[in-house]
Write a structure and sequence with these properties.
The chain is mainly α and 74 residues long. It is built from 2 helices and no strands. It has helices at residues 2-12, 32-73. The longest helix has 42 residues, at 32-73.
């Protein structure tokens, strides 16, 4: 959820300068537009990783619990 809030903030405030930002020890470059694109892309990749990882982990477990509750209620 925190990644989503950061992405929303980045899309609402398009004039932020990321050229001096260091992300995992790597500077995205001197061009502010390129640096912004890199940071936003990395955040979208992190969001997708977490979303799909949690889906893959919780979906079978939730299905198993749902099926167990359904069979128990009969």
């Amino acid at each position: 959820m925190a990644i989503c809030l950061v992405l929303i903030a980045l899309h609402l405030v398009p004039n932020l300068d990321f050229s001096d930002l260091s992300f995992l020890g790597i500077k995205p470059g001197f061009d502010p537009d390129r640096a912004r694109k890199i940071i936003v892309w990395v955040l979208w990749v992190l969001w997708a990783y977490h979303a799909f990882l949690f889906f893959i982990y919780y979906a079978p477990r939730d299905f198993k619990d749902w099926k167990f509750d359904l069979l128990r209620s009969n």
